[in-house]
Structure formats: structure tokens, C-alpha cells
What does this fold into?
Amino acid sequence: MIPASGREQERLARAALTRVFEPGDERGGRWLREIGPVELLDRLSGTDGAARILPGMTEARLAGLRVRASGADPQRDLDAVAAIGGRFVCPGDREWPSQLDDLGDARPIGLWVRGRSDLRLWALRSVAVVGARACTPYGAHMAATLAGGLAERGWVVVSGGAFGVDGAAHRGALSAGGATMAVLACGVDVAYPRGHAELIGRIVEQGMVMGELPPAGHPTRTRFILRNRVIAALTRGTVVVEAEYRSGSLVTARNAIRLGRFTMGVPGPVTSGLSAGVHELLRGEGVLVTDAAEICELVGEIGDLAPKRRGPVLPRDLLDEQAAQVLEALPGAGAALVRDVARCTGLTADEALGRLYELHSLGFVEREGDGWRLTPGRTREGGVRRGGT
It folds into this structure.
């Protein structure tokens, strides 16, 4: 029996509807928006013809939905998730991440959540790190390094809890003592994949696990793909680390682009099929990133800039223009007279001589009789020549 409280009625109805509709069902989402969860559940549970007047409803579809609705016991599901320390978060709750509303009629009916932290607050400063399940050691290293760097900077790392890049990203954040969230394509009481049972347990303790399916819900290929839209919508940006041309991670990236989120990719060897999808993304609207600082520059606040990238400063770089010209005028082998240096550089003999003495004091050149030559064992840049003394 549904309680009298309006808010509690809606919560129970939404919990029941997570057993009736598949994640991302836009037609169901439209009905939900137009008539509300309580009325929609009543129509699907009743025997009158009210459900038949819903736009797009067919007899076959209605029969299937009514079978699912007849087996729904929302209070049992709420009690089951509460027994493992979880909860059901609905649109309108203080904890609901409003950015999920960008999905329109495909937004989740509600989210089943495990973890002690506040979902809305964590989602406000979150980045998704996704990629191939059968990743290379390079992919696993990059995912863990990026996630650890993001966690150290106070960002929440979101991924899908799968093998490969997902697992490496979660572990990278956890090892840095940071926050991470796993968005599952199954019930939050189900450890899937089984090999990640311990990891998912650690995420529950140190972070958060969530999903659209009610307790005991099992994953399917379609549910994995639809789960990716939640990862894209929930976060400020998505980073793809290794993905083939046909990859669920690219589905996440395309969803992020469509939603106006930052979309990034980590390049790999051009000979690697596992990086081919990432490179195609980077040829389009994706932004190339190589470390956490570059990610934060995109998704962070104004002024949160990555350090400038440049090569080492060489002694040659510190010379003024005339001194550099004189240095370039000296031959690679043998010595040159002052007048020859002056003629080559366009300086007077006195100016050229003054610059030569300056270069001598800095160790670039040395005098040889009436001529000047490069110091043996030193390059024109001022470094030590390989094989030199």
C-alpha cells in the first residue's frame, strides 16, 4: 500500500518504475514527465484502458510493461538497498545532480547509491576517465596516473568499474587517497565483474557506487552502452584512454560532446589499434591531454592553468643577438681571424673582438694564436659534445 505522503508516493513509484523501464527509455521518460511517476505507475498497474492512451503505447508494449509492473515491490527494493547502507536518490531530492537533467527524457528515473558522501556535491567537481577493457600496460599506467593526479587536485574520478582502464582509474584515485565514483550497469548490490568485487568494496568505503537498476539487477550489453550517457552527463568532462574504433568509451565521449561537456583523449602509438578510436576523436572535437594539469586547465576554474611546456634552457639561449652571431660565424673545425668574423657578422673588428672575449669568458671559445676557435668538446649551444672531455 502506497503511503499518503506525496513525496514518499513519488519515491516509491520511481523505485518501482526502475524495474519497469530500461535505462534511457525516452518514451517512458516522456510519459513520466507528462503525467508524473505515481499516475504512470497506476496506469501500468491497472486493468483499465488508461495506459492505452499514452502516446506511442502499443498492446504488445503495454503487455510487457504490465508484466514488469506486476512484479515490482518498491518497498522491498528500498529496504534491500538500505540494508547494505545504500539509498535511492530521485529528481527533486537535495542530493540529486541537476546536470543529469540535461539528458531530457533519457535522464535516469532515479539512482540507487551506495557510499556516505553527497552525490550532488561530488558530481559538481568530477571528471570521467574511461577506456578499453583489454588495455595495454601503457593505457593502465596513464589511467592510474591521470586519476591519481586529478584526485590530488581535489577532483572526483568517475568511471564504470570495468576491467582495464576503468579499474586502473579507480585504483589510481584510491591510491592517492582521493575520491572516486563507479557508475554500474547492474544493481549496486551486485559485484560485476566478479574479479572487481574487492575493488568495488573499496570504492563503496572510500567513494561511491551508483546505478539505475534496482537491487539484483543484472548487466547486459545494452545496459552498458546506456550507462555511458550517465557518466557523460554527471561529470564536467570525459577523458578517453585507449579505445578502438568500436568502443563503448567512444559512446561516452560522443555523449559528452552532445551534452556540451569537455571531451579529451590521451594519444597512444599510431600503430596501436587500441588508440585508433582516441586518435579519431582527437581529429574531431576531442582535446589532446597528457597529464592531470592539462585536464584541470580545461574543466577547472579560470586561472587553473597547466604549466607552460618548453625544452631545457641552454647556455646558447642566454646570449644576446650579436654574441650569438659571432658564435655562429666560427667554423666547426679550425680557427678564424677577427677580421673574418667581423666580415661574416657585419660588425666592426673591435665589436667582434669584444664579443669573442665575452664568449671566451663564458667557455664557448678559446684563442689560438691570432685566431679564435670553438672550445674543444663543447657544442655551439654550450653543452658538452658527446665523446668530448
About this structure: The first helix runs from residue 6 to 20. The mean pLDDT is 91. The two ends are 90 Å apart (CA to CA). The first strand starts at residue 86 and ends at 89.
